[in-house]
What does this fold into?
Amino acid sequence: MNWILLIIAGFFEVGFATCLGKAKETSGSVSGYWMVGFFVCLSISMYLLYRATLTLPIGTAYAVWTGIGAVGTVLIGVFVFKEPATFWRIFFLSTLIASIVGLKFVSN
It folds into this structure.
């Protein structure tokens, strides 16, 4: 169950990073709404990370959480914000995913 909480926390990390990107692109009250979304996603993500670390090792949980956030944010950057998807970006993104999966298999 705590692995599921950790994965959901990672998705909310992607959410708060996405909200920051959208807030940067907008102005006025629309930007304020994106910032509200940022704080909501941040709060949920941190709470779920905390809950997951009650039973998972902190080093593994934090690495997986940031890894999910990093991978998801890069994918959002490519598909939503039209950032470049170069060979090396995809290559290192793949190695990051392999590392996250590896941490899952070697942790208790």
